[in-house]
Amino acid sequence: MSFEGFVPWPADLAHAYRAAGVWPGRTMGSYLWEWAEARGDRVAVVDGVVRLSYRDLAVRADALAARLSERGLSRGDTVLVQLPNTWEFVVVTTALLRLGVVPTMMLPPHRDHELTAIGAHVRARGLVVPDTWRGFDHQELAFRVAGALPSSASVLVVGDSVAPGAVDVRALMDPSGDVAGRQAWLDAHSPAPSDIAVFLLSGGTTGVPKVISRTHDDYLFNITHSARACAFDSETVYLAVLPAGHNFPLASPGIFGALHAGGRVVFSSSPRPEPVFAAIEAERVTATSAVPAVVLKWVDAAASLKPDLSSLRYVHVGGSMLAPDIAERMARALGCRLQQVYGMAEGLICYTPPDAPDSLAFGTQGPPVSPFDELLIVDEDGLPVPPGGEGELLTRGPGTPRGYYGVPEQNKLSFTPDGWFRTGDLVRLTPEGYAVVCGRVKDLINRGGEKISAGEVETLIQELPEVAEVAAVPSPDPVYGERVCVFVRFHGGCSLSLAEISRFLTERGLAAFKIPERLEVLDAFPHTAVGKADKKALKVLLAEIDSQPR
Ligand code: J2J
After folding, report:
1. Which regions span the lipid bilayer (predicted)?
2. Which atom of ligand 1 is nearest to the CA of 254?
3. Is residue 341 in contact with ligand 1, taking CB distance under 6 Å?
4. For the chain, first and last CA: distance in Å?
5. Any idea what the Cα angle at residue 402 is, between residues 397 and 405, rounded to 5°?
6. Are strands 444-447 and 518-521 parallel, antiparallel or unpaired?
7. pLDDT tens digit sequence for 324-342
8. Can you list the domains of the chain with their CATH numbers?
9. How far apart are CA 300 and CA 294, in angstroms?
10. CA-to-CA distance for 320 and 294, rounded, in angstroms?
11. Which residue from 391, 351, 356 is spatially nearest to 375, judged by alpha carbons?
12. Residues 6+ positions from 403 with CB-CB distance below 8 Å
């Protein structure tokens, strides 16, 4: 296999991680039959009326892997996976991991813009999509994107109405045939532990797609250490609420953490309180995870709906800032332990321990999962700040890759020459070594946990001939924490409404959650010394506008 854009860890460190056992030296797919044999008929995945045992999962994943191989996909290829939270997500991902075909985790709201850019960047050989989802025809989108990609990509569809020319994924999962023969063949053609296992998407700070390559070794490190930090075991029933393609529900400890611990994964098709409460009650869910904006909705709804949450032991909350008093309110209202999570698809992951005293459980985001994770807090000049001081967090470790995939110029900015990843987050460390996230220096908008690159939105808006200058900034929001606001200076005599800008972005194929929800028009922009829009000044201006009586 060759992934030219992959940045490896230094060989001596890789060796040390393996020698210490923090990298297991195995592939993610290599556990599948061990689980099937040890756990047999125990339920692994629940999705509505569908209940897959560990054995069902192994048989179906291998059937799909073998048939995808017959169709020409092989180790080192990559496909875009854009599936909602369904049992097929687990089978498809597992099949690809068995085969060494790298799933690139897209999200259901992504459209032409994201799929085409990312698909071209990773040279996707296929797109796995639902037929329709929430009234949107993903098949049609996938055919359009496949047609625009230089790599010849097939359209693989999970659903009842598979269009002519598309591959019916459910049919390929049919368990009939030579199960043992397929297993032996796949075991013999397994990828290597140092191969890329999955591609994750970064929130990004530029218009360039930033794809994070996670190897089997480093992703397994992340999953197994996360499962341990969250006390996952064979009694764990994990409810996957956030879109499964996000690192958080996928592997922190999430879906894979629950499977590794021998537990059960239950899918919720929506983060709304009613289906979430119904799933918790019906399946006796013990753990779930979500961003603060979602958990707050559960807290509000619990007061009136009075669900039976007695099985719930842990809620993992992370992805955006959470004030200590709100954290405490959440834990009390849901009647369970709250574990805060500070994580990133780029690797580092911190959890407050299940038995942390209240001051640390509510007031911090916890320590990293392993003593091999290194944290360094630096000031604006890149110099370490005194202990306890606030600054940008740099990190290195066995779960934090050394570069984004295939963007060497970007990597010079995002990583230091000695391999530290610049998180772009402002953090301080407590005397116990627990992280407290205080803000960020990176140029993105965090809308209820969804990261939106300001640069990506700005680059598209700049295409409008009426626009002279544009800057996207976060507008504070009581529900989502932040929403996208664009400041625009129009060319003389021109103007556009927010609705007109939104329509243009939708037509350009930008995911709906990235579309600006607020427009502020300026006659003149504040600029930094190097002539860029001064976002600090724009944020101050926004606060002034908001403080004026309406
Ligand atoms: C403040 N900001 C936070 C927190 C992440 C687990 C949990 C979350 C993510 C995730 C993840 C935060 N408080 N508790 O991948 O495995 C912001 C930071 C961080 C960025 C990463 C996981 N937890 N953040 O959110 O890749 O700014 O991952 O750098 O989407 O989210 O975003 P993302």
Report:
1. none
2. 16
3. yes
4. 61
5. 140
6. unpaired
7. 999 999 999 999 999 999 9
8. 22-271 (3.40.50.12780), 444-547 (3.30.300.30)
9. 10
10. 11
11. 391
12. 6, 7, 411, 414, 415
Mean pLDDT value across the chain: 96
Q: Is there an atom of ligand 1 within 6 Å of 368 CB?
A: no
Atom of ligand 1 nearest to the CA of 222: 16
Is 226's C-beta closer than 6 angstroms to any atom of ligand 1? Answer: no
DSSP 533-550: B-HHHHHHHHHHHHHS--
pLDDT above 90 coverage of the chain, percent = 97
| Three-state secondary-structure class, residue 113 | helix
* Tokens encoding 89: 């997500």
Average pLDDT for 115-119? 95
The sign of the CA dihedral 32, 36, 38, 44 is: positive
Q: At residue 312, does pLDDT exceed 70?
A: yes
The answer, yes or no, to whether any atom of ligand 1 lies below 6 A from the CB of 425, is yes
SS3 for 435-476, per residue?
A: EEEEEECCCEEEECCEEEEHHHHHHHHCCCCCEEEEEEEEEE
Instruction: Express each pLDDT in 120-145 by its tens digit.
Output: 999 999 999 999 999 999 999 999 99
305 vs 93: CA distance, rounded Å: 35
CB 421 within 8 A of CB 415: yes
Say if residue 535 is exposed, middle or buried (CB neighbours under 10 Å; 0-12, 13-18, 19+).
Answer: middle
Asked whether residue 207 carries a pLDDT value surpassing 70, the answer given is: no
Reported as a pLDDT band with limits 50, 70 and 90, residue 206 is low
Pocket test for ligand 1, best of 344, 365, 437, 480 (most atoms within 8 A of CB): 344
Contact indicator for 76, 3 with CB cutoff of 8 Å:
yes
Tens digits of residue pLDDT in 357-402: 999 999 999 999 999 999 999 999 999 999 999 999 999 999 999 9
Residues near 442 by beta carbon (within 8 Å), at least 6 away in sequence: 203, 205, 423, 424, 425
- Please choose from 289, 342, 446 the residue to mutate so as to test ligand 1's pocket, defined by most ligand atoms within 8 A of CB: 342
Predicted local distance difference test score (pLDDT) of residue 510: 95
